[in-house]
Amino acid sequence: xxxxxxxxxxxxxxxxxxxxxxxxxxxxxxxxxxxxxxxxxxxxxxxxxxxxxxxxxxxxxxxxxxxxxxxxxxxxxxxxxxxxxxxxxxxxxxxxxxxxxxxxxxxxxxxxxxxxxxxxxxxxxx
Length: 126
Known about the structure:
two-stranded antiparallel sheet; 5 helices; 2 strands; globular
């Protein structure tokens, strides 16, 4: 699978995911976020997987759109610019989810198959 990382670089990317997860959770707590809301919304970005019901190309596009740090970053910046800081906890939940996935080795998807990620092949069989 071209474009996938491995070895030490893969572990560094997983460590970055763990750091983002920890940072997001800590900042969420500092901002006084409600843990019930965190638990309720934590898996929401995984709805992007529904695109795979149509085909792998659409599935990977939907998944990647909801699993890029650009999304929560833009949400936080827009909330700050229009003075809607109560939106920040949602951006932090979203970023925490992405960090959690990356820490576990679930990377951005290639359109070949769900398991084809930028962090290498992820066996998703149960």
